[in-house]
Amino acid sequence: MCKRWDTPELVAARTHFEQGLALDESQPRSTLDFFYGQEAGVVSLAYLSCILWFLGSPDQALRQSQEALATARALVQPHSLALVLDFAVWVHWLRGDEAAMQERVAELVTLTDQEGFAYWAVQATLWRGWILTT
Asked: Apex CA 121: angle with CA 110 and CA 93, to 5°?
């Protein structure tokens, strides 16, 4: 069940991330994205997916998460993809979709193995543990 958490902070966060996305879309991709390892627009999409869930819009949250995944995959930027995969697991967890969680976690495990991302490997391990204990 999706409980609505209409706090002023979440409403403001949604507005800020949407404004950030609009700015990001109007700018060319920069070398800073690759220097810092994560593309700002993709990160905004991922955060926005969870915010939408908490604002009581589970279908929008799922669509936003899927858009973030598609965008991150198209960028071929492993750090952005790892973050987006982790957020996608969150959205599926909130939705109670264990099968989709397992798919995203498996993808995150594969990515962390390929890229040697220790932090994201720990996140994937935590999610795998949760799935195994439920």
From this structure: 85
